[in-house]
């Protein structure tokens, strides 16, 4: 028995570096997984199926209301319910720049994809979760929010919004047995064009209590916990999973 048996989980950004790992892990815990990404998630679906799990890929632009509704319709048509939503999609490539170099267009796009998407996805899944009297939502934020990391102002602003969004939404949906929590993700280095990943990695590992680089699997236990029945009495919370990079809480 997995902790997500008979559950249906949507993972936005599920074709990405961390999203792939999250999708595989939730499937290994028994969930039927919807890999929702602007990019093609079919290879993630194949990996899940090869391991004996269930998954579909739905090309989705999380910043577009109609596209998000399409993601929900496809999920319901395939699996008939939605138990868990992992709002993980974000613009991560090419975002490192001094704040004076961020154009208004870039600012708006980041807020749209990284924050407004959470509103759109939560709004689209909520009627189903309410009808089921069951739902688990995680919004992915970032340790940069607490650190006030320089040169990511649009990103940090959107990810800060995710923390308040989760807390306030939790207050409004708790009576429908829907929980909303935030995971403040530390540094999980991978090839990110436009980011000086070596320097950022050195800075972060030096600040971490645990002096090694984070691996995607380091996030799996927290994700499954907050998306499972086990965490039914925990909502509106932020937890950092970051090797002790941030030690002040969200
Ligand atoms: N990797 C890290 O060090 C780190 C640190 C802190 C927070 N995070 C957060 O973790 C999450 C995953 O990051 P990652 O490192 O795997 O990055 P990634 O770029 O590998 O994954 C992001 C995914 O989001 C998708 N995406 C982008 N725009 C989209 C849109 N409009 N609609 C649907 N999908 C879209 C991309 O196609 C990609 O697959 C993000 O929310 C990121 O902010 C990552």
What do these coordinates show?
With 250 residues, this protein is an alpha/beta fold. The chain has one domain: Rossmann fold, CATH 3.40.50. The protein has helices spanning 17-28, 42-50, 65-79, 104-132, 144-147, 153-173, 197-207, 220-227, and strands at residues 8-12, 32-37, 54-59, 84-87, 135-142, 178-185, 238-241. A seven-stranded parallel β-sheet has the order 3-2-1-4-5-6-7, sandwiched between helices. The protein is globular, with a radius of gyration of 17 Å. The model has no long low-confidence stretch (mean pLDDT 96). Bound molecules: nicotinamide-adenine-dinucleotide. Nicotinamide-adenine-dinucleotide is lined by residues 12-13, 15-19, 37-39, 60-63, 88-93, 113, 140, 142, 185, 187-188. Nicotinamide-adenine-dinucleotide (NAD) binds at residues 12-13, 15-19, 37-39, 60-63, 88-93, 113, 140, 142, 185, 187-188.
Describe the protein's topology.
Layout (H helix, E strand, L loop, with lengths): L7 E5 L4 H12 L3 E6 L4 H9 L3 E6 L5 H15 L4 E4 L16 H29 L2 E8 L1 H4 L5 H21 L4 E8 L11 H11 L12 H8 L10 E4 L9
Parallel strand pairs: 1-2, 1-4, 2-3, 4-5, 5-6, 6-7
Helix pairs in contact: 3-4, 4-6
The structure holds nicotinamide-adenine-dinucleotide.
Largest sheet: 7 strands, parallel
- Predict the CATH topology: Rossmann fold
| Structure summary, number of beta strands | 7
Radius of gyration: 17 Å
Percent range for helical residues? 40-55%
Strand order of the largest sheet: 3-2-1-4-5-6-7
According to CATH, the homologous superfamily is NAD(P)-binding Rossmann-like Domain
Please trace the helix and strand order, writing H or E for each element. Answer: EHEHEHEHEHHEHHE
Number of domains: 1
Bound small molecules, which ones? Answer: nicotinamide-adenine-dinucleotide
Mean pLDDT: 96
The CATH class assignment is Alpha Beta
Overall 3D geometry?
A: globular
Q: How does the helix and strand content classify structurally?
A: alpha/beta
User: What percent strand?
Assistant: 15-25%
Q: What is the distance, rounded to the nearest whole angstrom, between the alpha carbons of the first and last residues?
A: 33 Å
Count of DSSP H/I helices: 8
CATH architecture: 3-Layer(aba) Sandwich
Uncertain runs: none
């Amino acid at each position: 028995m997995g902790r997500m048996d008979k559950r249906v989980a949507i993972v936005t950004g599920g074709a990405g570096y961390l999203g792939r790992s999250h999708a595989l892990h939730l499937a290994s815990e028994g969930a039927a997984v919807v890999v929702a990404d602007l990019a093609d998630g079919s290879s993630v679906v194949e990996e899940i199926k090869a391991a004996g799990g269930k998954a579909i890929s739905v090309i989705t632009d999380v910043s577009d209301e109609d596209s998000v509704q399409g993601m929900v319709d496809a999920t319901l048509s395939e699996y008939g319910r939605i138990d868990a939503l992992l709002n993980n999609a974000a613009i991560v490539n090419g975002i490192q720049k001094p704040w004076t170099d961020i154009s208004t267009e870039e600012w708006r796009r980041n807020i749209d994809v990284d924050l407004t998407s959470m509103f759109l996805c939560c709004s689209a899944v909520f009627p189903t979760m309410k009808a089921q009297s069951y739902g688990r939502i995680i919004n992915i934020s970032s340790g940069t929010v607490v650190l006030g990391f320089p040169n990511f102002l649009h990103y940090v602003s959107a990810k800060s919004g995710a923390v308040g969004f989760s807390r306030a939404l939790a207050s409004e949906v708790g009576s429908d047995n829907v929980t909303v929590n935030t995971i403040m993700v530390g540094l999980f280095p991978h090839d990110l064009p436009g980011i000086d990943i070596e320097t950022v990695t050195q800075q972060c590992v030096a600040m971490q209590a645990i002096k090694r680089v984070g691996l995607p699997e380091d996030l799996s236990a927290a994700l499954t916990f907050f998306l499972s029945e086990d965490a039914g009495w925990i909502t509106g919370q932020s937890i950092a999973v970051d090797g002790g990079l941030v030690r002040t809480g969200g």
